[in-house]
Amino acid sequence: MQRYFLKSAIEVVPEQTFELTGDAVHHWLTVMRAQPGDQAEFVTIARDVAVGTLVTATKAAATVQVMSVTTPQVELSTPVMIACGVSKGDKTEQIVQRGTELGAAGFVFFDCQYAVAKWAPNKRARKLARLAKIAESAAEQSHRTMVPTVSYQPDLATLVTAVPHAASVVAWEESAKQGEHSQLVQTLQQLPTGEPLLAIFGPEGGLTPAEIETLTAAGVQPAGLGPRIMRAETAPLYLLSAVSFWRELV
Amino acid sequence: MQRYFLKSAIEVVPEQTFELTGDAVHHWLTVMRAQPGDQAEFVTIARDVAVGTLVTATKAAATVQVMSVTTPQVELSTPVMIACGVSKGDKTEQIVQRGTELGAAGFVFFDCQYAVAKWAPNKRARKLARLAKIAESAAEQSHRTMVPTVSYQPDLATLVTAVPHAASVVAWEESAKQGEHSQLVQTLQQLPTGEPLLAIFGPEGGLTPAEIETLTAAGVQPAGLGPRIMRAETAPLYLLSAVSFWRELV
Fold first, then answer.
1. DSSP-based three-state secondary structure for A234
2. B141–chain A Cβ distance below 8 A for any pair
3. Which ipTM was obtained for this model?
4. Nearest to B237 among A143, A144, A241 (CB)
5. For B96-108, what is each residue's pLDDT tens digit?
6. CATH architecture of A80-249
7. Which residues of A fall within a CB distance of 8 Å from B141?
8. Which stretches of A116-208 are DSSP H helices?
9. Start and end of every Ribosomal RNA small subunit methyltransferase E methyltransferase domain (chains A, B) (predicted)?
10. Which residue stretches of chain A are H helix?
11. Where are the domain boundaries for CATH 3.40.1280.10 in chain A?
């Protein structure tokens, strides 16, 4: 069933109706060609999921009758913020799309020394808007009950201060080469349920020793993610899978 | 440093030379423009890694002097065979590329009922050859010491018989919906180190209940991979990350 995220604080009560507005109306009525009687799922800001039936529609709004309301638990009990160096091509899009499927709470992109790509300041807002769209669409498809946030920070020092977290790791190849393999597990073991984890990843070119120093001075722990070299856009997927496995399956 | 997999059983002994032949010669000399004195890494069939210096070269062969030989342990201690329904577009390529980075021992693609794509029999060999190339190139980049195999099986029943394994799971959405979340952990706990795991994933359209029945009758365990819906090409990455996390970090 098609799923939409409600952008305003709408209360969904079984048997009552609500007015659907915004992009979802266009998508449901025009793209999906919904007719009165058709159903879709609507996720509220409070993460409730309502199954709704289309009652009547104009071009800009639709009246939807609520059939049922549930509160599925599909979000990671450890909110994970994925911070990545700006990458070229569609790598940032891939990180957001797959990372959303794997349960990320949000994504932060940052400028750094070895970044192959730079986001021109005048294009930044447009890029973030596009990534936010990708996150929303991936969240719908993976039946999430929240849309991950997407934001930008100019550098690592600012990022560590600006992004709230209770624990933080940076994936560092040198760590892995030196045989470091217990930091991620330790961090997860010590992190209380519900507290956010900030996980930082370099761009294709990696982070510089100076950048790693900035991070460790700020309390971020270098962590190895196994003995194989992963590309910049694969490492965040490994981390998210590991957190899900640890918190949801083990 | 550029890395090449040796295709024939060449013994690498420090200070001695060997003849490099095949595709690697073309790539190293013509694409990378190697000159005498330049170095590269050469992985033997026995998974030793030799650093070699180019001594002399013709168009078809190069003489390489071995500088050092190491035997890095970068392969998963649980060989994982990833079996996926044939997918459309570049999804099979993505599975092979990223799955190789994440340590897969091999990939098997199979035909099934809800597959959106079919491999025409006359194109199958070409598709497999292309995927094998992608696996090799990803194995070089991720510093693996083996190239994952790529093969095809006509259906699930044949696949389960043909692919050697000591344990097997099938990722099944319905399993996850019913709250199944301990099978993968149980399977990993019971599987002796070194024994191969076969992990089966449906195509975009999923597997049919009859296909799941065929698998369970053959001893394959349905396993949930957390409460979020993953796309066909993301689920294998989750599983490989989870196996690495469990075997290499925990």
1. coil
2. yes
3. 0.94
4. A241
5. 999 999 999 999 9
6. 3-Layer(aba) Sandwich (3.40)
7. 229, 231
8. 124-141, 156-162, 173-177, 183-190
9. 76-243
10. 23-25, 91-101, 124-141, 156-162, 173-177, 183-190, 209-217, 235-244
11. 80-249
